[in-house]
Structure formats: structure tokens, C-alpha cells
Automatic annotation (TrEMBL):
Cysteines joined through disulfide linkages: C735-C742
GO BP of this protein: canonical Wnt signaling pathway; cell-matrix adhesion
Matching Gene3D superfamilies: Green fluorescent protein, Laminin, Thyroglobulin type-1, TolB, C-terminal domain
Domain NIDO: 106-268
A matching Pfam family: NIDO
InterPro entries found in the cross-reference section: 6-blade_b-propeller_TolB-like (IPR011042), Cueball_EGF_LRP_Nidogen (IPR050778), EGF (IPR000742), EGF-type_Asp/Asn_hydroxyl_site (IPR000152), G2_nidogen/fibulin_G2F (IPR006605), GFP (IPR009017), Growth_fac_rcpt_cys_sf (IPR009030), LDLR_classB_rpt (IPR000033)
Species of origin: Macaca nemestrina (Pig-tailed macaque)
Keyword Secreted part of the UniProt annotation: yes
Residue span(s) of domain Nidogen G2 beta-barrel: 430-665
CDD domains, per database record: EGF_CA (cd00054), nidG2 (cd00255), TY (cd00191)
Record-given protein name: Nidogen 1
Coiled coil, from the record: none
Signal peptide bounds: 1-30
Molecular-function GO terms, alphabetical: Wnt receptor activity; Wnt-protein binding
Amino acid sequence: MLASSSRIRAAWTRALLLPLLLAGPGGCLSRQELFPFGPGQGDLELEDGDDLVSPALELSGALRFYDRSDIDSVYVTTNGIIATSEPPAKESHPGLFPPTFGAIGPFLADLDTTDGLGKVYYREDLSPSITQRAAECVHRGFPEISFQPSSVVVVTWESVAPYQGPSREPEQEGKRNTFQAVLASSDSSSYAIFLYPEDGLQFHTTFSKKENNQVPAMVAFSQGSVGFLWKSNGAFNIFANDRESIENLAKSSNSGQQGVWVFEIGSPATTNGVVPADVILGTEEGAEYDDEDEDYDLVTTRLGLEDVGTTPFSYKALRRGGADTYSVPSVLSPRRAATERPLGPPTERTRSFQLAVETFHQQHPQVIDVDEVEETGVVFSYNTDSRQTCANNRHQCSVHAECRDYATGFCCSCVAGYTGNGRQCVAEGSPQRVNGKVKGRIFVGSSQIPIVFENTDLHSYVVMNHGRSYTAISTIPETVGYSLLPLAPVGGIIGWMFAVEQDGFKNGFSITGGEFTRQAEVTFVGHPGKLVIKQRFSGIDEHGHLTIDTELEGHVPQIPFGSSVHIEPYTELYHYSTSGEPQPCPRYTVTRAGSERRPAPSRVYTYQVAQDNHLPGMPASTRQLSGDSVFVLNSIGPVREGSPDALQNPCYIGTHGCDTNAACRPGPRTQFTCECSIGFRGDGRTCYEVEKTRCQHEREHILGAAGAADTQRPIPPGLFVPECDAHGHYAPTQCHGSTGYCWCVDRDGREVEGTRTRPGMTPPCLSTVAPPIHQGPAVPTAVIPLPPGTHLLFAQTGKIERLPLEGNTMRKTEAKAFLHVPAKVIIGLAFDCVDKMVYWTDITEPSIGRASLHGGEPTTIVRQDLGSPEGIAVDHLGRNIFWTDSNLDRIEVAKLDGTQRRVLFETDLVNPRGIVTDSVRGNLYWTDWNRDNPKIETSYMDGTNRRILVQDDLGLPNGLTFDAFSSQLCWVDAGTNRAECLNPSQPSRRKVLEGLQYPFAVTSYGKNLYYTDWKMNSVVALDLAISKETDAFQPHKQTRLYGITTALSQCPQGHNYCSVNNGGCTHLCLATPGSRTCRCPDNTLGVDCIERK
């Protein structure tokens, strides 16, 4: 399936390559050969500016587009698009493709006509001269079609400039593009004609406001969103979206005239996709080609999530050849002249190709590479989804999965405690039920009359932690029942689905999520004919059951009434293969090698099975499925010699004794642990069901009231349903699927003030509930002493890890845990270089703790009157700690042991987070990512001289660090995706790097910044000197990373007025530039304390 998909755009690629080799008739298209345009032709003119959309251009006749025939108006945009419905404001600039609106894009890019940088003209023209010229263009591309338009829309982008963004590209200065789109419509069909004159495309990339870098333009069509209750992406076609292809638009053609491209966009033939013309550039009038010897693959692959793993379907709407038939276009090798005939059947270097037209529905990200054409050395790569992200595809994941963005798209993965492929997830270790229907048409023995049955029930019960599955088919006709007894393949696939996973290997459900099709052929040795088994697995239904439909057709030998069948233990080999392209959620094909089994009734029948399962999955390799007896014990693992009994771990052989609602976790040799499944508690040997949480009850109530209790399906638009995490608690980030707004909630599901973000931006919300502690050996909480040297310390939920530094290089192989505190969620980290002590904030209890790098038990120093302590900083000279509290909206100070607390600020704070000190100068800095007014503030350490340091061009300023050696204040922003720095004594700021994923916290050491990233779950090194990311460390445990700090081997030089004798203060000594202030703690009634400056 993927092999054929890899050649899907070959015809289009050939067309783009041919101009390099062939000269078209008449040479390049001149600007004078464009359709007439301008005010003299009655054109309307789009207002000058950036990202503008015209008023509706009302049409005299309907435009047809894909399967629609009722489009009576269009909209013209600055950005090279003709829209069939008004683009929403949030999509005014190019971003995710496909857009939600219908789009025709001759040069889809971020274009700019501000201050007269070019013009955009548009009109509908009914004049005979224009309609006739459009008809001639269409006829050149589709010579077999008789087409006479009654209406023509002419849109011209004349000398438009590229949007260049904040960093202007010198090579684009003065570059201008001119191109034209013509839409011609009759009563029965519509065509698009794109014209690119010589020297009309002087630039091929523009700055993307979303990607924050230069991206290629695109030639594409999109149907827009479809559906009534549940909106989803409709069909779309991308014909060029890399630099080389765009450069060749003016040099090539699909209509025989250089620079002119013709597409059939609306007719009965375009229901599933736009059809391009296929007249090869250089074709002479009357030239004919014999393509009988060329081998073309007419199968395309639908990339819809609803079709993941389905068998390919025939794509007929390629080119018209008659009333109901379509012929394949003639595609020439670049090495053959236009008049040459193919020299023979394809060889290794003359491969089969597909037409470059395909329909996509709710697609997985996939990069399709066109195979090299002979020895030209040119290969074009197309990204078919244009960076689909979690922002608008989160609903495709299971409610028990998280969604992550990758460079090539998004991917769903089940959270801890659940297993599956991310789209479908079930609790690990929980029993599973499989329900479905079976129908059949079977010839028994030598009978010429088939036995037919319909609507027969199939039920299977799977004990996941034993790898046992029991399958029954009810009400089978008695005349065929005994003859079906040997057919283990009917239910055997369920054994593969839920086989016990050996370490590093995945069963079928972890790969497919129970969504795939399967076909098997069973042949009996010595018996003519075969039996074909077709099965479609449709995932988890609203009752939590896996659904399956089975069809049996063919011949089986007759087994006498009353016979019994015994099947010996067996093994099956499953081969996994993929295209090898790096993809976040790639597609794989699974084939099972023939296997031999010997049922033993009164006579022996030997049968063989060959099957194909089409599904997404895992790296290319071979897996062995071992079956103890039919429909019972299954284990998936590596191919091994000899008996599967060699696998002695009780988890693999089913002798562990774990509760049926528990997962068996294999250890070394024969060691194992039992762990209760999500929703159950106990020691693993005995598990009991726990009551549902408040979040789960609220979710079920809302879904039930809306009649949408199926948790695996999309939520009806307009309905907000709270998200619960893997343990039933409110997920810290809640989003409204229809509006796109997201916000943070507390542990009771209440919205946290000031956290609501606009669509497309996710607030950095923190989980306030620690994950449950799994049963098993107790993890020691004592600190593991650090070796000498400088280390990075970073927090990962319930632990702190250390990462040694050698110079500025992360010694990743030496990373180890420093401290385990599994009942906490550690957010902020700070280090005292004097006592070698690390301090942290915990938002679960909440509390503030500390531990020595030299070892020993951690201690809690603050646990009263805290809301959500997040950022923490140490003044190593004044011997104080400072912290932010985003729940109480305040900043506090205390001595290093947590005593003598004093509130510094409790006004004009909404979401304070990062906080750092400049101990030598006595300054304090902090961030507030308040969505209405994000800012970075500063004050003296005593709270005086408070002022805003940075307020403009901030999004979600999370992390903050101050480098005492260079006096640089740097921060990372998850809203602008930037790292920036400034010297607080100077007004200018420097953008260090753009395009960060989702930075959370940051620290500095030497020439580097080191930040934690939520999307990559990594610590990333950023070289300040060259503004480039140089390295990244990804911990073994893939969970969210929080605070990070540098554990210095020695303190920076310097002192302040609190360094000696506590500055002469009785209690708190708070440094200021060139002085200090003595302050009393809050609530010091009766305490002998003296305040003075």
C-alpha cells in the first residue's frame, strides 16, 4: 500500500521536470498573453494591505467545486487565494492547510500589497471574447471535452510583494510576483486556469507568521470543512509545495502551453478530487502515444483516520476516457523526446507511476516521496497535510491519550496506565470484550449448494494480563458448525490483538487500536478450494467493547457430526513493514507468514493460512506470536528457536496470579509485579473498583444529557465537556473544542483567573494532583549525593534529576536521579551555592522543600498558607529565598529555613511564575504570564522601586534566568516561542532564537541557556553566541519537565550589604543597590524586631 503511495505524484513531478529537458511551443508565456486585466477592463481592486479579503463577488451563474454545484459568490484574498466562502478572521493569513473554507490557490503564500506594493484585481466577465479564450485554454488541457463557459472569473495578482516579517530577507528586496487565476463555468462543470508569465514568479517563499520562518508557496485546492454536527476536513489536493516545484510553474505546463495550467475543479468527476490536465509540454498537434507498455498503478490510499489501515480503493477520477471510464495519462520519462514511444516494459529504472491527484480526509501526517525517475537525480518531496497539529486535531485522540506535535504532524499516544495506539486506549490489564457479527457463504465438502447465514453473533472475552482470549460464534447452522471447528484464524487475530507484550514488543492493539481490516485465505491440504476470511475491526464502541464484522466465503472439508478438534501449540510470524519515512504516526502493513496447524478429529486436516492486515504500527521487523492452545494463551515477542516454553517469566506464561483487573509487569528472569488497572485499587493480587471522580461524573452527565456518551467519538460542536486525566482528575488545561479557547483549572475544575488564551495558544497550566503511587518496591527518598563539578538539576513531576556538565557540554550518559519524591509535583528549582542545597516548590501539598547535594533526607520548610507556589529563587549572599504563588497572586520572601516569612507583593499580579535574583546588585525579577497583560517586572529585594521591565511583544513568559557573570537577564516565552535577553540597565532587548516548541523553565551557565520543553520533553542547550540550539537531552521517562537550575561548583564572586553579620538586621536583611533594608516578618506581634534602612 505504501509502496504505491510513494509514487502518487509522479505525473505532476514529471510535468515539473520536463521543462528542464524540453522546449515548449511558443516559449514562455509573456505578460501580454495574460487575460486582460486592470481598471480599464472593469476590474474591482482589492484594498492595499496585508491579509485582506474582498467583499463577496456575486456570480451570475453557479461555480462548481468538488461535489458542490451551488457556489454563487467568491472572495479574493491578498494571499493568492480565491475562497468559495468567507475566510474567518483567524485564518486571514496562511497557516494550517487545509483551511476550514473552500480555497483555490494558484500561489498560496503570505503576500503583501501595503503602501502600493502591487495590486490585486478581480471581476466576473461574461463577454464572448473572454469566455471563448477560456474555452480554448480548457480544450488544450482536456482535448476530449466539449466545454463552453457562460461565466468567467478573472483574478490577477500584479507585482505583489512577499510578506517578510521582522527579519527581512535581503535577497527578496524588490522581488515581485505576477500571476493569474481564471475560473470558467458552464451549467455542468467548472475549470480553473492558472497562468504564470515569464519572470512572473521572482520569489518562491514568504515569511510565515505561524512558523516564524520562510516557507514555500503552494499550489493547492481545498474543499474546506464538511459535515453538519461534526466538522472535519474535506477533500483537498496539493500540486506543488516545495521550492523546486514552485520555480518550475512558469517553465512548465500540464496543458501544452508553457506557464498555463488547467484543472477540472467541479463536475461529476471531481467528487473525490480535482483533476489536472495531462497534456505534456512539447506535444505536437496530432501526436499520439502508445502507453500500453507502461505500467501504471491505479490504486491510491485514503489517509483518513477513519480509514487507517484499510485496504486501498480504486481511484477512477483520473482522466476522462468515456462516459463511465477513465484512462491513465501518458507520462513520459524525462529522457525520452516528446515523440518517442516507450521502449518496453518498466525496468528497475523505469518504474510505474500514479497520477498526482489524491483525496485526503482527516489525514495522518505523511510525507510522500516520488521515486527517482531514471537517473535524473531529482526527487520531489510533498507534505500532504501541511503540518496538521494538535491544536485542531486533539479530538482525534482518545480521551485517555495525549497529543504531541512533531515536525511532520501530530501524534496521539496513550497516557500511563493505558495501552493502545493513541486513537483508541484501554486500561492496562483490564479484561476486554469483543462483539460483532458474522455472515457466511460456505460450501462444505463436495456439496455444490452453499450454506448461507447472516447476522450471527461473535463474542470474545480477553483476559489481558494472561494473554487469554475466548471466542464463540453463536447460532451457526448445524450442517456447517463442525466443519468450522479448525478455523482458529477467525478468532486467532484477537489473540494477536491482546497478546502479552514481552519487553520492547507490541501486540496488535498497541499498533492498531483495534481499527483495521484483515483478509485471510485458508487452504486445506488435499482438499480443493479455499476459504476467505474478511474482517473489519472498528475500534472501541460507546460501551467500551471492541467491534468486529466477519465474512466467510469459500470451501471447507466436511468434518463428521460429533467430532472433536485438537490444535497443538503453534507459532505465527508477523512481518511489519513501512516506507521507512520518518513520521510521528507512520503507516505499516502487517503480513502473517503461512502457519501449519493439525486439528485431530477422526482424520487429520492440515491447513495453511496467508493473510494481510493493513494498519498503522511499529518499526519494520518480524514478531512471533506463540499460542498455547486455540483462543487461549498468546504472547508476542522476538522470533526464537524452539518452544515458547523457554519464556519462563510468569507474565508471559500466565502463572502470575494477578487479579483479572491488574497488569502483570515482568521483571528480570522470573520476577514480576502486579499493578491494578486504572479505576481499580489494591495490591495487584486483589483489586477492587474505586468510585468515579468528580470530573468523571461531570463528564458523563454532560455527555449523557447530550446523547453523546461514546467517549471514543468526537464531541458535538458547541458543547464543552471537561477533560479528565488518566487518573480521573480534572486535566489542568481545559479547552473548548468549538471556540478553540483554552484555560487552566484548579483541582476542583474551577477556571484560574487570567489563564484563558486565544485560539491556537495553549496556556502553561500545571497539574495540582500528583499521580498515584504504584504498588511495588518502595523508592528511597534519600538524596543520592552528587559527584564534584557543575550539574544541571531539572524537575520531572515526582523527582529531580541531575545532568553533569563538562564545560558547556551535557554528559547525557551520566544523567541520574538525584531525588525521588513520587507524591509531589515539583515545579520550581533554585540552588544555594554556599551550602550546596537545592530548593523546590511542590504544588500538590502545597509546600516548599530542600535537600543537600551531599545526601540525606529532604525536608519541608514551608507548608502553611500556600496556594500554588511555582517559581523560587535564592539570594545566596543575603541567605533568603523568594517565591511566586500564582493562586494567592503574591510574591514572598523568607529565610533559607522557611522562617520569617514576609509578603513583598500582593497587588497587580495574576499569574506570577519565574523569579530570579541579582544578589550582588540587590535586584529581583519575575514574570507574570497574565493573558490580558503579560509582563516582566523588577524591584529591589526589599520590594521598593517596583516597575515593569518588559511589556511589549510577550505571549506566555514562563522561564527566567539571570547570569551573574554577564549581568544578562534572559527569558523563554511559550506564546511567542522565543528566547530573549537584555541587560536590565540598558533599554534594548535581543531576540536570541525564534521557533522554540514549548519552553517552560530556563537556566544559564557560561555561553549557554538550558531550557526545559514541554513538547519535546527534553532539556535543550542554546548557544547564546551563535543563537542556535546545539544539543538536547531527553530523559528515559517521557513525562513533562518543569523547573531547571544550575548547581554551580563554586559561587560567583561578589557581595552585598547583607553578606556580613546579616547586615546588622535583627531579622530579614533585604539587599538593595548599594545598601540594604531591615524588615520584620509578617505576624510578628510581640517579637523584638527593628526595621530600618
